[in-house]
Write the structure tokens for this entry.
Amino acid sequence: MNNPNISIGRSQESILATNKVLKNTYMLLSITLIFSAFTAFIGMQMQIGQGVAMIATFGAIGLLWFVLPRTANSAAGIPVIFAFTGLIGLGMAPLLNMYLAVNPSVVSTALGGTGVIFLGLSGYALTTRKDFSFMGGFLMVGMLVVVVAALANIFLQMPVMSLVVSGAIVMLMSGLILYETSSIIHGGETNYIMATASLFLSIINLFQALLHLLTAFGGDD
Amino acid sequence: MDWLKIGSAVFLIAMIVFLWPRMKHAVANSPKGKMSDWMGFIVPLAAVIGFIILLINMV
């Protein structure tokens, strides 16, 4: 016969573990976002070129794909995630300089908008406690379609297509924020470093897509 | 075509190579969502779209 006390104890342990992952994720995410903003600021002040930005982005993706999965379960994962987010920030510097030169208000609006969307979606997933694990396949197929469309548009150079891609990125990143938050709540993601990396990328992609959409439709493109 | 475009293309091709096996795994192993589950995604997504339209009008 099952002992209900053991069951309650396990359930409380599981809730405590989930809350710990959630707390650590949001704390690390806040610090890495600040660090990323700092490296972006440094890159903007130094007026780094597109070449340096591309190398920084390649370096960041290399860390994300090949180093972070091997170090995320140890203390070594912390400097790796800081290196990853710092390089992403640095890689965004020329883009931010360009948008600031076109229309400075677009950058602050996109930044605020990204914050509101992230907090709203996280709050929604946390309060409703819905399980969004069913979206895994849909989000992966969506991302692949968007990457293929972006690749095709390098050669086609269609402005409408780039706007469609940005719109699709906003929707996919919104879905990813819901998916990742729900995954932490339901115990699917137990590593706060990997959860931080995933949410960080969603926020950065959302911010870049919003910058593009606001500049294009705001009338200052 | 300049080297920046070539770099972007290489990066996107690498992403496709990286995403492809993960997509196959996710499609095969994700649980199927019911209509009510999808509504739980569509409602906040509609709110996000509405918010972006508001932002566009503000800029």
Notes: Residues 60 and 66 of chain A are 10 Å apart (CA to CA). The mean pLDDT of chain A is 92. Residues 4-217 of chain A form one domain.
